[in-house]
Amino acid sequence: MLRWQPVKFVLGHPSRGKVIFGHPGIGRAMLGHQESHIAALGVTRGFSTTTQDSCTSPQVQEARDDGPAQQPTTLKPTHQPFVKNLFLGKFDKKMLTFPEVLDRDQHELLHEMIAPIERFFIEKVDGAKIDKEASIPPETLQGLKELGLYGQQIPEEYGGLGLGATEYARIAEILALDGSIAVTLAAHQAIGLKGILITGNQEQKKKYLPRLACGEWTAAFCLTEPSSGSDAASIQSRATLSKDGKTWLLNGSKIWISNGGSADLLTVFAKTPEVQPNGEVKDKVTAFIVERGFGGVSSSTPEDKMGIRGSNTCEIHFENTPVPIENVLGEIGGGFKVAMNILNSGRFSMGSSGAGIMKKMIGWSMEHAVTRKQFGHHLSEFALIKEKFARMSVAVYAMESMAYITAGVLDSHKNADCSVEAAIVKVFSSESVWHWGSECLQILGGMGYMKPYPFERYLRDARVLLIFEGTNEILRLFIALSGLQHAGIELQSLIKKLRNPLMNPGFILGKSIERLRHQKDNPKLDLDLAGYIHPSLKLGADSLEYCVKRLQYSVEVVLARHGLKVAEPENQLELARLADCAIDIYGMTAVLSRASRSYCIGIRNSAHEMQLAMMFCEEAAARIKKRVKDIENGPFINSDSTYMKIADTLIENKGYAAEHPLTRVFW
Amino acid sequence: MMASTSLLCGRASSRTILTFLSSVNRTLHSPVSTQTLPRHIRRVSTSSVLEAARKEDDTQKTSLSIQGYFATKDRTKETFIAACDVFKDKNPHLRGHVEFVYAALQHMEEYGVHKDLEVYKKLLDLMPKGKMIPRNVFQVEFMHYPKHQQCAIDCLDQMELNGVMPDSESEEILMNTFGMYSHPVRKHRRMLYWMPKFKHASPWRLPESVPNNAFELAKLAVTRMCTVDPSSVISLFETKDVEDAIEDTWIVSGQSPTQQELLQNHPPEEPIKVEGPFRIFLRDQCVGYFILRAEAKPQPPPVKREYIDDVGSIKLWFTGDLEPDDMALIKPTSVHEQEDGIILAICATGTSGRDSLLSWIRLLVNTNPNLANVPVLFTQASPVGDVMTTGQHDETTSVKTVP
Amino acid sequence: MFHFRGVQLLGGPQSGFVLAQPFFLCFSRTSSVRVLQPKNLCSTCKYSCRYIHFGTSQRKIQVLDRVGVTPYSQRSVISYNKDHELLPHHPWNKAVTSRSISVAAAQNLFWEKDPKGGYGHKKKHSQKELIRDGLKELRTELIKWKDEVREKFEDDPIMVRPGDMDKIWILNSEESLEQWVVTSDKDHNEGFSSASLTLSPTGHGLFSGRINTQVPKDGRVKRAGYCNIRTIRPRKSFKRETYLDWSLYTHLELRVRGDGRSYIINISTAGYFDIMWNDIYTYALYTRGGPHWQVTRIPFSKFFLNSKGRVQDKQVSIPRDHVVSVGISAGDRINAPFRLEVDYIGVYWDPSHLETFAYEMYKVPKFTAGH
């Protein structure tokens, strides 16, 4: 009798499933078509009204396909790798909608969790003492265990907190208040036990995760060796199968293992012989779960470090350590992939922890600047100081936005490939924290340099961010090469023709006509990104489009110039430029989407956020413009070849090659 | 039957029904004339009236209960929600829900739930789902079920006036009740567009619900007033700490290092005044505050144009060329030096009485030693604002806002 | 956070006030006051008015009438007895104008008859009086006209440089206060608030009074409590109406000292066409309170469009070359005295402010937004 449509299904979408659309402000903005100019009927939780109407945007199509709300909340859409597609000039406009992952209950729960953790850090953690004595007192560790921080990402069924990426990133912000504690916990859960979480089978999870979650056992990640730091595939530890085929015997030594001295569970990577189909025996990396109790595991004294002194870093030696075959993580010979997956999954939280440190330091510096008077003015009145604060603020905003947009994407999609995005977050955050932390110290003046104050300790702790979890240089190459690899698949035929111009004259002619606009630095902007965010950010959106087009152009240029040799050591400068462009573009996307959302939903100081976003976009666009010009110009005009020659002379001279200024030739 | 007439009578209260019923009783023996009864009940037949009269007792209970639902002595959120639940139980077909919602909206403030979104959602949820969704364009255009839509709109109205922001759940409720194209849903969407934009628009932060406690309010007020100078320090004192203090109360005082400097350099002959209490409103609560004010100094004459135009004589401070006197010309006046006086400190006390202010001055001397040498006057009239008279002061501190 | 407790719309823009809260929405069914007079009822279709919502509802009422369902109208006609209790309302005893559901501001049909929306008093003057008064002013008007002609030919156009702030209204003397009109709901018998604009002890304009949220018992008004001040319209010689041209500026700047309450700033851009007579652009003025003055700069891009107190669905940014008057209203529904000292109101140019309009617009299903 009552034929009413079951409207519930359109509205009652699962919180995690339609996150990217389901936002009061931005979900609507997805339609963004300003030509209609009909205001003010906000659609909550997206697009429910508009799905039934005239919209043709793909996002909305997807929403319709997702069906009734009775579907389980674990159903998540898939995600195309965003940055990899940027190298092809494909921009996923869904990223301009800042994800809102947490529903009301999760949000409340998270904030309830945060308060005691913050209190713990303020009251019970004595950072100066930890730094001086180079160890974390056991009571502090016990406190962390009680707060459940040892099992943040472990599912609840194994005794952990079962937090998603966003919540993990939020808590990382607070943990960053003490670098040693942050690194200890990260080494334990972000890399130490991540292997079991990602690749472990049920028995391994059941056996080990409960003890790791409550902190009874600490985990560590053992990959680095004296001869292989960044080059993980060249490790020399070996594991040989015993005669009865039931245990592996592990031999080798690992250095610089965080938590090495106190860890009970180690994820060890060693080479195992593998018989190839053609009969050859090759050594492949395999991952093992090794308990200290297996025997033969010895760790040396902790290393004395510049920063994160409280974190235990030591060498670990394995002497015929028996590892049962059940403890092989993943497949035999598939250890390299496991290692890469583990490392890729933990990186994004560095953005939020970096933001946490920086916000703290900005607070201290600002307090100092506002109270200290010199020459009759407060420091905060001087333009040089103000500029530092402003730029710092822009960088922190970008860091936060990138970290949380990555976390949001990870949380709301199934098996999202965010390896490049996480690398970008890590590179940007580590460098920003180091640079702007140093500037904070500058503002604080002499006080910043003194040991009794905490400021210098934060800077020292922050230096390691550029080194561990993949050095920034390696990550830049990773970003660039992943992008090029992805782009290369599609551009294969195009590049072949570009590299053989004389054989394809017609094509080259057509291509150069197409490229005329690019050569005048005026690409055609046809993505209409401005339609997806608040109109006041139009200039930023146009800059973003320009940068995306220029990146696409520079990818073609680089591939055409080098072909397969693009991965050779001598071509790294161009790759670094491409990577920097990708970093800036991702940053621009993140800040624009976040600022647009804030402005639309009326968050406090959203006008300030808009300014931060626009500044970041302006500067990033200027940097990208220069870099693409450098790529276009080639190594002779952009001074790359000169630098290489200088470096070669230095290498020959085994050091600085210019003679001392006081040298005389004749009297 | 009777219940349906109560529905049709719109917001007629139960007393109307009662009078109607009694009049029906009286006219039972005479045929119901179509002239005396309103149009919409014209077609009531005698027999059905008789029948209804026989059933009078039962229907009386249900129709009286709209007033009765909100007649409890204990007026809390729980009892309000209980009233809604009772209504739902008693009327599985939700008869008279419009009247109930109106009565509930009226009584909300007494129960103290007028700012509670959950309660509004509960009320909106009382509407039957699905029945009122239009099924064709004509129904959409001509406001299908106008009374019910108006009722929902009035409910949203009250939410808006009380500053309660709706959420996606209430939209869902309205959508399921009235359909996508209805006016309540459209109003709801407008609310969700405009309300968030202004919720945090004020540059000065106030908590969601301003505390009722005078001490907390005073802290908020003084902090807010001292945001003018970011280096201000808010201090909390007790008059107990001052010897010979008659009143025992708290004092919230705000002063910045700049003001301390100004007070330090104040010539001891000139008196400074404690003025107040002035009113400051924190949302709907009012706080009385006092200020310590010195007479305004004349502004230094503006630097001459010729002096600035002459670039041959740039003086630098790091070479010692610039004397402290010269710097006075370029030294900026602080924000506290206004044309109607120099504000030296702000405070709010528990009693706002003369003695508490005396204690305040004595406590300020700890951080401003020069204050001990300066005569302090307590004045009534002030150029800075309207001084609240005692009567006014009490009245405004106990102001009840109409939501 | 700061919620406006503005009074619901109470009729036309007579004093330039926006009585509704900024987020009080434009749907006409949500009004509080029955301003509808019997003569405004019309049985013909009132569909064509630009900001009409009432029109469509009126039509709907007609249809409903025919169908035989009693239109709901209780809210608008509420009678009170002495003890503020609601009397039972007898539907069949309704006043003449009882049929409508929507009770908006007097929304007119094909045209706006009155620039003051029914709130003004038309004084009747005889022709003789008009001519006599006119001749008295002839001399001053001629002098004004001569100045204008001279200015046109001799003076250079105004050059505005970045960071320039030009004060338009400085309230520092009785003369300057004469440029302002003070009104409150008491003037229209719609409430009991009082307001005045005087010179404060420090020599600045002082807008003070008391907001009284008590509702008068006349059966029409549902909510009350507003006071406003508004500038008089700029005029050239011979009383010719003109506009203020602020197209070279980006912000409105006010130096005020308030009492912590929020006020509403209304900029009227009434022009030649009657549907735009009630266009007011609004934003909030938040005051810190305390003894310190505050300088508030509000970008013009933040002002949103209202008409007769209803926030419009189709928003546009303020036409800065077409400004008629600026008004400040107090109407945050807090039953207490208010005090706002105004030093000056000026306009400011910030070249780095590139925003044209702060309110984004969405594509919505047809016929759902105001039309």
Automatic annotation (TrEMBL), chain A:
Record domain Acyl-CoA oxidase/dehydrogenase middle: where: 220-320
Membrane-protein topology: Peripheral membrane protein
InterPro entries, alphabetized: ACAD9/ACADV-like_C (IPR049448), Acyl-CoA_DH_CS (IPR006089), Acyl-CoA_Oxase/DH_mid-dom (IPR006091), Acyl-CoA_Oxase/DH_mid-dom_sf (IPR046373), AcylCo_DH-like_C (IPR036250), AcylCo_DH/oxidase_C (IPR009075), AcylCoA_DH/ox_N (IPR013786), AcylCoA_DH/ox_N_sf (IPR037069)
Keyword annotations from UniProtKB, A to Z: Acetylation, FAD, Flavoprotein, Membrane, Mitochondrion, Mitochondrion inner membrane, Oxidoreductase, Phosphoprotein, Transit peptide
Biased composition (Polar residues): 49-60
Domain Acyl-CoA dehydrogenase/oxidase N-terminal: start-end pairs: 116-216
Region (Disordered): 49-76
GO aspect biological process, one term: fatty acid metabolic process
Domain of life: Eukaryota
Cofactor: FAD
CDD domains noted in UniProt: VLCAD
Entry annotated with the keyword Flavoprotein: yes
Single GO molecular function: flavin adenine dinucleotide binding
Location(s) in or outside the cell: Mitochondrion inner membrane
Signal peptide: none
GO cellular component annotations of the record: mitochondrial inner membrane
Reaction(s) this enzyme catalyzes, per UniProt: tetradecanoyl-CoA + oxidized [electron-transfer flavoprotein] + H(+) = (2E)-tetradecenoyl-CoA + reduced [electron-transfer flavoprotein]; octadecanoyl-CoA + oxidized [electron-transfer flavoprotein] + H(+) = (2E)-octadecenoyl-CoA + reduced [electron-transfer flavoprotein]; oxidized [electron-transfer flavoprotein] + hexadecanoyl-CoA + H(+) = (2E)-hexadecenoyl-CoA + reduced [electron-transfer flavoprotein]; eicosanoyl-CoA + oxidized [electron-transfer flavoprotein] + H(+) = (2E)-eicosenoyl-CoA + reduced [electron-transfer flavoprotein]
ACAD9/ACADV-like C-terminal domain segment(s): 535-656
Primary localization: mitochondrion
Acyl-CoA dehydrogenase/oxidase C-terminal domain sequence ranges: 333-480
Protein family (similarity comment): Belongs to the acyl-CoA dehydrogenase family.
Protein known as: Acyl-CoA dehydrogenase family member 9
Organism of derivation: Cherax quadricarinatus (Australian red claw crayfish)
Taxonomic path: Eukaryota, Metazoa, Ecdysozoa, Arthropoda, Crustacea
TrEMBL record, chain B:
Keyword Iron set for record: no
GO BP terms in the entry: cell surface receptor protein serine/threonine kinase signaling pathway; innate immune response
Domain of life of the organism encoding this protein: Eukaryota
UniProtKB keywords: Cytoplasm, Immunity, Innate immunity, Mitochondrion, Nucleus, Transit peptide
Protein's UniProt keywords contain Cytoplasm: yes
Similarity-based family: Belongs to the ECSIT family.
Protein name per the record: Evolutionarily conserved signaling intermediate in Toll pathway, mitochondrial
UniProtKB/TrEMBL annotation, chain C:
Family annotation (InterPro entries): Galactose-bd-like_sf (IPR008979), NADH-UbQ_OxRdtase-assoc_prot30 (IPR013857), NDUFAF1 (IPR039131)
Alphabetical GO biological process terms: mitochondrial electron transport, NADH to ubiquinone; mitochondrial respiratory chain complex I assembly
Name under which the protein is recorded: NADH:ubiquinone oxidoreductase intermediate-associated protein 30 domain-containing protein
GO function term, MF aspect, one: unfolded protein binding
Keywords in alphabetical order: Chaperone, Mitochondrion
One Gene Ontology CC term in the entry: mitochondrion
Family designation: Belongs to the CIA30 family.
A UniProt-annotated Pfam family: CIA30
Residues that span the membrane, as ranges: none
Domain NADH:ubiquinone oxidoreductase intermediate-associated protein: from-to ranges: 172-342
Source organism (scientific name): Cherax quadricarinatus (Australian red claw crayfish)
Subcellular location(s) of the protein: Mitochondrion
